[in-house]
Amino acid sequence: MNVHAPALAEAHHLDDQTSAFARDVIGDLSQYPKRLSPKYFYDAAGSELFEQITLLPEYYPTRTELAILRDRCRAIAAFIPTGAALVEFGAGATTKVRLLLSECSLGAYVPVDISGDFLKLQADALRADFPRLQVLPVAADITAPFELPEAIGAMPKVGFFPGSTLGNFEPHEAYAFLQSARDILGKGARMVIGIDLEKDERVLYDAYNDAAGVTARFNLNVLHRINRELGGDFDVGAFIHRAIYNRDRHRIEMHLISKKALTAKILGRNFSFRPGESIHTENSYKYSIERFTALARGTGWTLLESWTDSARMFSVHALVASD
Ligand code: AVI
């Protein structure tokens, strides 16, 4: 379907961000199979649900990565040159970077995130705890090129991309992101990146099908968000959360499945669902260290060192831009 964003925005008095959301939702629900982009999970309610996910007993990635960063912070800090600018892509909560800050002598910390308000709050909290640290937030979409602050021009640059967010990118998007990060950081750049690893399928399944149902609420929240922000009339109770491991494609897939035949109206358009029909809402790719190394190499990065936990659940990698 051809979606004319300006006309849509004007007719419904939408601001820029909401009209981009409207355009993507209408376009993606007009496809077959239907889909929605995982970037729309993270409104205030979705971000709060994601914070709850990171604390779930079944969701191992966050606590495992934190343990690696805590246990290996000396070695990771040794990889970050003194006086470097640490550029965090998609800076959420600052828990992870704080582990590095206490070990490194940085010239500046540059958190980059699309949510300017959230970024400002995080930056103020960091300045209060690390008064000598120069914190220079940049409000930008990390999947598109952006400018770094002039003040860090002369400093060595180190990218920081924890959380295995790269796993939510399609392989071609992951490739483009790594290439673009290298261009943004420039010659001699370094990067510290967290990547979730392939493992026992049961462990993966449970991590995305928690017993308390928080991941289900996180997934369903995107329909509530469409109702809230786009005046949609989704019968959210008629959908169920489904997460499966797709072994051939090395990814967890999240879907919302319609329990019955129904129609949802969004901005004057009707979307019909058959019983059992899916909206594919997220992929979370799991890598082997070999496959990640090959991806990094193909995008102009050389792997210098990898750190994992003893069960090899999660990995953190030190990359250097190849000349
Ligand atoms: C943010 N991202 C790395 C999470 C993941 O595991 O793919 C998002 C998530 N989806 C369901 N649970 C967590």
3D architecture notes:
Helices cover 38% and strands 24% of the residues. With 323 residues, the chain is an alpha/beta fold. A 7-stranded mixed β-sheet has the order 4-3-2-5-6-13-12, sandwiched between helices. A 4-stranded mixed β-sheet has the order 1-11-8-7. Helix 3 runs antiparallel to helix 10 (214-230). It binds N,N-dimethyl-L-histidine (AVI). The site of N,N-dimethyl-L-histidine (AVI) has 11 residues, from strand 11.
Note the main attributes of this structure:
alpha/beta, single chain, about 325 residues
Describe the secondary structure blueprint for this structure:
Elements: H1 5-12, H2 16-29, E1 34-35, H3 44-54, H4 60-71, H5 73-79, E2 85-89, H6 95-101, E3 108-113, H7 116-129, E4 138-139, E5 157-161, H8 171-185, E6 190-196, H9 201-207, H10 214-230, E7 239-246, E8 251-258, E9 262-266, E10 269-273, E11 278-285, H11 289-298, E12 301-308, E13 314-321
Parallel strand pairs: 1-11, 2-3, 2-5, 3-4, 5-6
Antiparallel strand pairs: 6-13, 7-8, 8-11, 9-10, 12-13
Helix pairs in contact: 1-2, 3-10
This protein binds N,N-dimethyl-L-histidine.
Describe the biggest sheet? 7 strands, mixed
Give the bound compounds: N,N-dimethyl-L-histidine
- Order of SSEs: HHEHHHEHEHEEHEHHEEEEEHEE
The residue fraction in helices comes out at 25-40%
Give the end-to-end Cα distance, rounded to a whole number of Å.
Answer: 44 Å
**Which structural class fits the helix and strand makeup?**
alpha/beta
Beta strands, count: 13
Radius of gyration: 20 Å
What is the global morphology? globular
